[in-house]
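Before a computer can learn anything about folding, someone has to put a protein's shape into writing. The outcome of that step, for a single protein, is printed below:
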Amino acid sequence: MLVAFCRVMIDLSNAAFNHQSMSFKDSPPNKQALLFKLEPDYASRFATEVSKIIQTARQNPCGKADIIMGDSRELGRINDQMFDLLITSPPYPNRMSYIRELRPYMYWLHYLKNAREAGEMDWQAIGGTWGIATSRLNEWEPTRGVFTPSYLRRIVSEIATGDGKNGEILSRYVAKYFEDMWLHLCRIYQLIREDGKIHYIVGNSVFYGTVVPVEKIYGDMLKEVGFRDVQITTIRKRNSKKALFEFDVSARK
């Protein structure tokens, strides 16, 4: 019922999802007044959403799944398990904050109480850069010994000089993103069985005209970690800039 409540609230709001980042449209005349009228239609909307969620729950396939909260750079809570297959879609290095996009739901469901909590959570996330996470990037420095392809260093340098106002902080953002992913890949290698397969669904990005070939960087990191048979498959064109695509970067241990 709480999920149904969130779905109705976001539907009745002025939230716009027609581009990468959620925003709010201007209110049409009398829109706010309409929202606070207790009309039967709103109750039926809520009932419809509850019904949809119940039907979906009943259609779940049989089986068992474990949801484990943890840091994907460490994965310490699954030390006693090994896996045959990994399929995941990590955040893309495009400065899109999932916490920012999900804030309405997370406040309504009491996962967040204030903006600082959202910023703290975003700083912990790979690719997070909202609120205090942005300011902390100014103080972040790369860790010695982390694998960084030479062309990635060049790309980071180009981004830093691409815009006088934001170039430096965005270059740090990109560098930190790939350092975090390197730490993750090193850890995940220890948890995949011999001949096990992995699939990373990722998208490339562009900053000030500089293309960040995320798929190639992932491929090179996978090879450096020790994975073999690395393949990069283009999945689709994304609904944004011309140079942006989504890829399946796969490999075998």
In short: The chain has a mean pLDDT of 87. The beta strands are 15-16, 23-24, 83-88, 192-203, 205-207, 210-212, 228-237, 245-252. Residues 76-97+127-252 form one domain. The longest helix spans residues 167-189.
